[in-house]
Amino acid sequence: MQVTHGTVVPQGGLGRNAPGMGLTIGNFDGVHRGHRAMLQRLVEKSRELKLACSVLTFEPHPREYFAPASAPARLSRLREKLELIAEAGIQRTHVLRFGAQLAALAADRFVEEVLVRGLGVRWLLVGRDFRYGAKRAGDFAALQRAAAGGGFEVEAMGDVVDAGKRISSSGVRAALAAGDLAGAARLLGRDYSMSGRVAHGEKLGRTLGFPTANIVLRRRPPLAGIFAVAAELEETGVALRGVASVGRRPTVKENAPPLLEVHLFDWHGDLYGRHLKVKFLHRLRDEQKYDGLEALRSAIAQDVAQAKDYFRNHG
Predict the structure, then answer these.
(1) Distance (Å, rounded) from C-alpha 140 to C-alpha 281?
(2) Which spans in the chain are helix H?
(3) Disulfide: which of 31, 42, 96, 250 matches 84 by Cβ 3.0-4.6 Å?
(4) Whether residue 45 is found in the same domain as residue 158
(5) Quick check: is 167 in a domain?
(6) Reported confidence tier of residue 53, pLDDT bands at 50, 70, 90
(7) Is residue 298 over pLDDT 60?
(8) How far, in Å, CA of 260 to CA of 15, rounded?
(9) Is residue 169 part of a domain?
(10) Exposed, middle or buried, 313 (CB in 10 Å: 0-12/13-18/19+)?
(11) Closest by alpha carbon to 61, among 52, 70, 50, 51?
(12) Torsion over CA: 128, 174, 30, 188 (sign)
């Protein structure tokens, strides 16, 4: 998949005279089953119309730009999102930088400058609640009118539901926050995962007898606690079982930034700088503050035992 980045008008935009694109627009956080249904429809229609199959997404998320303190936790990093979009068969994704310039762009100018002149859209798929342009002034009806004058078709995607409720990123976040990994996996169509490069830490886990691979979480994670996990090294595809902590390590440091720490049962090599994908399979408990390192060591040993029991009972 080709990935491009830019501000308002994508660099090297296709323009009106290009073969054109089939396009969908959205944040696609988590790329859940509703997103995947939309991407499947896009792939099918683009193939039918012989158009390039493309996604337009945003970085940062608009809510992170407007209200960073109250923005929802991200389900996926940009890299993870792009990997999932590529797996759906998309040929090109443009990552549009969301800042003051884009936030102030009027709805009609968004259509003309970004969609028509920038991306050369010929067929567009959005949700019926899609809003665009400064102050979210543009809605689906306005987009239909703009399409008539802009030389492209527009289609609304119906909701994908689970147990009578619309599948959404907020629904996935709610399930993860409640510790309902099975519910989150049902909405996602896969086990929830986090990934990143292993960074050097304080080596406390090694001191306690449980060395960990540490992944710094630069944004608030959507879940917290202690989990049985399956991890995979990007370079090898080797699957590894372990126990992971997502949280702020209250026993070790007050007000520490969030961290993903993974103790792998059968790995003894150097992981620093390597990319690790961690799937969350079973929640063991909440993160707790202990009275000293010896109490913490005992709790970790119990976590390891419980995680190993989980894997013995679940193949």
Answers:
(1) 39
(2) 33-49, 62-66, 78-87, 100-103, 107-109, 140-150, 169-177, 181-188, 204-208, 293-313
(3) 31
(4) yes
(5) no
(6) very high
(7) yes
(8) 44
(9) no
(10) exposed
(11) 70
(12) negative
| pLDDT tens track for 177-200 | 999 999 999 999 999 999 999 988
Q: How far is CA 242 from CA 72, 107, 290, in A?
A: 28, 49, 22
pLDDT in tens, 221-247: 999 999 999 999 877 777 899 999 999
CB 310 within 8 A of CB 282: yes
What domain range is 118 assigned to? 2-162
- Give the bridge partners for 170, in sequence order: none
180, part of any domain: no
Mean pLDDT throughout 217-223?
92
Same domain as 231, residue 109: no
User: How many CB atoms are closer than 10 A to CB 255?
Assistant: 6
C-alpha dist (Å) from residue 186 to 34, 89, 176, 224: 11, 22, 11, 19
Adjacent-strand bridge partners of 56:
25, 94
In a domain, 140, yes or no: yes
What are residue 58's DSSP bridge partners? 96
* 88 and 39 both lie in a single domain: yes
DSSP output for 2-38:
EEEEESSSPTT---TTS--EEEEE---TT--HHHHHH
State both tokens at 99. 């800042």
Residues 15 and 102 in one domain: yes
Q: What is the domain-level CATH number for residue 301?
A: 2.40.30.30
Q: Is the model's pLDDT at 13 over the cut of 80? A: no
23 and 137 together in one domain: yes
- Taking residue 296's Cβ as centre, other Cβ atoms within 10 Å add up to 20
Mean pLDDT across the stretch 291-305?
Answer: 90
